[in-house]
Design a protein that fits this description.
Elements (H helix, E strand, L loop, with lengths): L3 E5 L4 H13 L5 E5 L3 H10 L9 E5 L2 E4 H11 L15 H13 L2
Parallel strand pairs: 1-2
Antiparallel strand pairs: 1-3, 3-4
Length: 109
Amino acid sequence: MSQVTVLVDGYCSLCKGWTLFVARRDRFDRLRFASQQSDAGERVLRRVDGQGLVGESVVVVTGSSVYHGSRGVIEVFRVLPWPWKAVTAMWIVPWFLRDWAYYFVADHR
C-alpha cells in the first residue's frame, strides 16, 4: 500500500488531537501529516486543488485520488490496522448523513 498524505487545518485543536491519535496507531508508517498552512501542505493543496479544497478540515491524498469530508476520515482509518480499520464500516451510512455529521463537527470545533 502506498503512503497517504493527510492535510489538516493547523489552527484547529481538534484536528491536531485527531492527528496525534491517528499517528500513534499508524504501526506501518503509511501516513504523512502536514498542516495545510505549512509550505509542504500548501504545495500539496496547490497540486490537487482543482476541487475547492481550501477551507476543508481534512484533505487526504492517496496516489492520484483526493478525499475530504467524512470520506477523507474513512480513508485514513482504512490505512490503520485492526481494530481501527473497523471505522471503515461507516460506509454503510449514506454519504449525506456522514458528511452532515462531519461538517457539523467541523463548523463547531
